[in-house]
Amino acid sequence: MSDPRALIALLEWYDAVGVDAVVLEEAIDRLAAPPPTPVGEAPPRWPEGGEGAPAQGLSPRPDRPVQPAPAVTVTLPDEGAVEAARAEAAAAASLEALREVMLRFEGCNLKKTATQLVFADGNPAARVMLIGEAPGREEDLDGRPFVGRSGKLLDRMLAAIGLDRSSVYIVNVVPWRPPGNRTPSAQETEICRPFLTRQIELVDPAVLVSLGGPAAKALTGSADGILKLRGKWQSYRVGERDVPCLATLHPAYLLRQPLQKRLAWRDFLALKRKLDEIGG
Ligand code: URA
Question: Is residue 34 part of a domain?
Fold first, then answer.
């Protein structure tokens, strides 16, 4: 592509559709023909729909130099490193020590594409701990959770019941932004779980609030959808204590489905009642 304007337009389009992270150094030519078959051997078959398979209905161009698609290297976290992180997280005696452990941790692939660790925001001494899904683009650049559009809505929802960032502590299930804002995988969630567990133990909140389905699922282990889980108090074991835990809708979902704000409003009123009940 020789026209720089065309290149800029292409990059802007990628950005608009959420492709804003480069995962591999080399692009994969998915239309490349397979390598030539040695005489006497059956030609290899593309795995159906698998990595490197030509797109449906497109045949490799016979005039192209034959070029196998490079294998995608997915680095699976080393079990030993994950176990070590688990032990280190469990041993972290303070939030600052936990943050240091997470900064050194190399066992989660999300860290490779993220700009930085998004540890937490708010007041660690707050009674309410909010748990989101994962940092988005703005959070990845800023280093704090919920600073983008959904964060602004979250701030307004909190203000409606008299709370702000000095009266809540906010974290995410995974502290590194998934590329393109995709939902963290079950494996990524499990790898990061010791960090979340320890963060909850160290903050020791009076009430936990999960924002959206993935956070509710990570806390309760339930396979139910968020519309079923929301608005019901459950409990989450922290050390010797059962902490009341409420699932509500994610602000990003509310931005897409504004009519559902009435459900979130009910949940926030339930949160306010619980805080009044608990006192302190
Ligand atoms: N969505 C989340 O779940 N967390 C953030 O920090 C931002 C958006």
Answer: no
Question: Which residue has the least CA distance to atom 6 on ligand 1?
Answer: 145
Q: For residue 258, what are its two tokens?
A: 């504004």
Among the residues of the chain, which ranges form H helices?
Answer: 4-16, 79-91, 95-104, 110-113, 137-142, 149-160, 186-203, 213-220, 226-229, 251-256, 261-278
The alpha carbon of 169 and the centre of ligand 1 are apart by a number of angstroms equal to: 13
pLDDT per residue as tens digits for the range 50-80: 444 444 444 555 555 555 544 444 555 567 7
In short, whether 140's Cβ falls inside 6 Å of ligand 1 is no
- Tally of domains in the chain: 1
**Span 18-54, pLDDT tens digits:** 666 665 556 666 567 666 666 666 655 544 444 444 4
Measured from the CA of 250, which atom of ligand 1 is nearest? 3
Q: Is residue 193 in a domain?
A: yes
Task: Give domain status of residue 143, yes or no.
Answer: yes
Say what the pLDDT of residue 4 is: 80
Q: 251 in a domain, yes or no?
A: yes
The CB of 119 under 6 Å from ligand 1? The reply is no
CATH for 212: 3.40.470.10
C-alpha 250/C-alpha 264 separation (Å) is 9
Range of the domain at 221: 79-278
Q: According to the model, what pLDDT value does residue 24 have?
A: 59
